UniProtKB/TrEMBL annotation:
InterPro entries: Radial_spoke_3
Positions with biased composition (Low complexity): 94-103
This protein's UniProt keywords: Cell projection, Cilium, Cytoplasm, Cytoskeleton, Flagellum, Phosphoprotein
One Pfam family per UniProt: Radial_spoke_3
Name by which UniProt lists this protein: Radial spoke head protein 3 homolog isoform X2
Region described as Disordered: spans on this chain: 94-115, 336-370
Cellular-component GO terms for this entry: cilium
Compartment(s) of residence: Cytoplasm, Cytoskeleton, Flagellum axoneme
Keyword Ion transport: no
Regions of compositional bias (Acidic residues) in chain numbering: 361-370
Species this chain originates from: Bombyx mandarina
Length: 370
């Protein structure tokens, strides 16, 4: 595989072909319309006849009357700001005059022209087209990637070593005995404490179970006694109510029996005489007549009227039915008679003795008889 590399030189920045020149348009020094030049004396004066605004007069101070103000112009004292402004204007005027007095590049002579040149310390050759060159390179084909090396961290610090011989530090069998005694003692003590705690918990659970059983039994007995007391109280109230009702009923029955016996005794003696007196006075007859006239007779008239209306209605219905049947039969008989006349007119000769009308009348009479 070949790769070409091309180097290109680029030209430097374009420079102006002519000299640097500067010119400004003429302008008036005073551009105040309120000031006019007096042609007689050549000095700048103000128009005395023209009215001026006092707000633009420098001798009038505007603003707060309590604050300190610079003294008005015309009293012989100039403020620091005015002096600084006057100094700044003078410096600007000097710079402008120096710029105007600086000579520029004269124009070229006839037949010649100005040409820009380089004023740097090192000259640079300029080309319209940069220098180009070709370079080739070839890479190896099927180059395998090398194996990744094993990461080995860098060592920090210096290595040191020491040698300990048997018996130099301590005797393990001798030094380990107190530790083993403490461990075994603490383990045994903890085991005994756990066993005692478990036995105590078992005792507490058994006591709690017995207490719960006793409490449940007492609660059930209390509920049973309360239900029994309530049942006995309700039974007592019911029996008392029944006894009172039976007593009241017995008293009422005795009173009714006594009243009935007393009334029967009085009525047995008074009833014949009372009825005889009423009959003699005519009250009972009028009552019977009034009952017949007011109750029986209207009912009888109403029933008779309904029966007569039903009879009349039935008679009208039967009459209509008979009329419809008679009309239907008459229509049928007329049709039959006409058909027979037509048949006889076709079968009999012209010199028939019996007229057709007589035959039709006889047929109608027979049909009517049927």
């Amino acid at each position: 595989m070949s790769v070409s590399v091309r180097s290109v030189l680029v030209e430097g920045p374009q420079r102006s072909k002519g000299p640097f020149t500067y010119a400004s348009a003429p302008r008036a020094l005073y551009n105040n319309t309120k000031l006019k030049r007096n042609p007689s004396c050549g000095s700048i004066t103000t128009n005395q006849n023209q009215n001026t605004n006092l707000m633009h007069d420098k001798r009038v101070v505007r603003g707060s009357t309590y604050a300190s103000h610079p003294q008005a112009a015309g009293d012989g004292v100039e403020s620091a700001a005015a002096r600084a402004a006057r100094t700044r204007r003078r410096a600007l005027a000097k710079r402008a005059a120096a710029a105007r007095l600086r000579p520029g590049t004269p124009p070229p002579a006839p037949g010649r022209r100005h040409h820009p040149i380089q004023t740097e310390y090192y000259l640079e050759e300029l080309f319209d087209k940069g220098v180009e060159m070709e370079v080739g390179v070839q890479t190896d084909l099927f180059l395998d990637r090398p194996a990744t090396p094993i990461y080995v961290p860098a060592k920090t610090g210096a290595d040191a070593s020491t040698q300990i011989y048997p018996g130099e530090l301590f005797d393990f069998d001798l030094e380990v005995q107190p530790i083993l005694e403490v461990l075994i003692g603490k383990t045994t003590e903890q085991a005994l404490a756990e066993v005692a705690q478990e036995e105590e918990l078992a005792t507490l659970r058994e006591q709690q179970r017995r207490y719960c059983e006793l409490r449940d039994a007492e609660r059930a007995e209390r509920q049973r006694l309360a239900a029994q007391h309530l049942r006995l109280h309700e039974e007592k109230e019911r029996r008392v109510t029944e006894a009172e009702a039976a007593q009241i009923a017995a008293i009422e029955a005795r009173e009714r029996t006594a009243a009935a016996v007393l009334v029967q005794g009085y009525i047995a003696e008074l009833l014949p005489s009372v009825l005889a007196g009423l009959r003699d006075q005519g009250y009972l007859v009028e009552r019977i007549e009034r009952g017949v006239d007011e109750e029986f007779m209207p009912w009888l008239v109403k029933e008779v009227s309904l029966e007569i209306e039903s009879i009349i209605t039935s008679r009208d219905v039967i009459t209509e039915i008979v009329r419809d049947v008679v009309e239907a039969r008459g229509e049928l008989y007329r049709n039959v008679a006409e058909r027979e006349e037509n048949e006889q007119g076709r079968n009999e000769p012209e010199d028939s003795i019996t007229p057709p009308s007589a035959v039709s009348e006889e047929g109608e009479e027979e049909h009517l008889e049927e």
